[in-house]
Amino acid sequence: MSFVRVTKDDRVATLTLSRGKVNALNEPVVEEIHGCLEDLENDHTIKSVILTGEGKFFSFGFDIPEFLGYSKDAFAGFLTKFTDLYTYMFVFPKPIVAACNGHTIAGGCMLATACDCRIMASGKAKISLNEIGFGSSVFAGSVEMLKFCVGQKNAWQILCSGAMYSAEEARQLGLIDQVSSEEVLMDEARRTALDFAEKDSVAFAGIKKLLRKPVAEEMVRREPGSIREFIDIWYSANTRENLKRIKIRS
């Protein structure tokens, strides 16, 4: 079953997450996103990519109820795939625009921060790295990407508060680059993607690599240790009790 819909139009590919009402991330979704991006990297007709979600969610983040049944080793395998995905996205040679159509939470927010530009719909939608609220941690790579987007001070505020930010509030922090209405979000994202597509693709890839590769190298260096620490916290008694109270709407 496919959870990612890919459409192509005039040098721009759009990847739309479509998994239930909240577009929760599990192993097949992560693998499919990675595979789609690999195909698009090798498609010379595509110059830029839009990542968005179907419905009222960009993504809720991890499918927590599903992962509660995972062994530590199996969960470590998933986390490695997930962090490999956002690292790949972070240095992807073509521009990726995140069109945050709705709630962009936890792992969903991490995918958005891996993109080159984030445009978010105003209204009820919230964006957050809220892991601390249910007793979880984050990953070294996600912290490095967040600092790249918002700076050290704002990263501290976002992570340690676990606050749910509106598009306007997130824009002030640098977490979102542009606020749009729901009605024209995809038009705005497409306009931005086409602006990127007008750039010389070789020059863009080179500049992006110069800016982001040193960050990605630090992400890769620190990631295994952060995954081990994340698992220790995730499987602790207090956090497990908090996780059990989280429900996913199918």
Round the Cα radius of gyration to an integer and report it.
Answer: 17 Å
Topology pattern, helix = H, strand = E? EEHEEHHEEHEEHHHEHHH
The structural domain count equals 1
Average of pLDDT: 97
State which percent range the strand residues make up. 15-25%
Q: Low-confidence runs (pLDDT<50, min 5 residues)? A: none
CATH topology: 2-enoyl-CoA Hydratase, Chain A, domain 1
Shape category? globular
Distance separating the two termini: 15 Å
Broad CATH class: Alpha Beta
Q: What's the architecture, going by CATH?
A: Alpha-Beta Complex
Task: State the helix count.
Answer: 10
Largest sheet: 6 strands, mixed
Tell me the layout of helices and strands.
Blueprint: E1 4-9, E2 12-17, H1 27-41, E3 48-53, E4 57-59, H2 64-67, H3 72-90, E5 96-100, E6 103-105, H4 107-113, E7 117-121, E8 127-128, H5 140-150, H6 152-161, H7 167-173, E9 178-180, H8 185-197, H9 201-234, H10 237-244
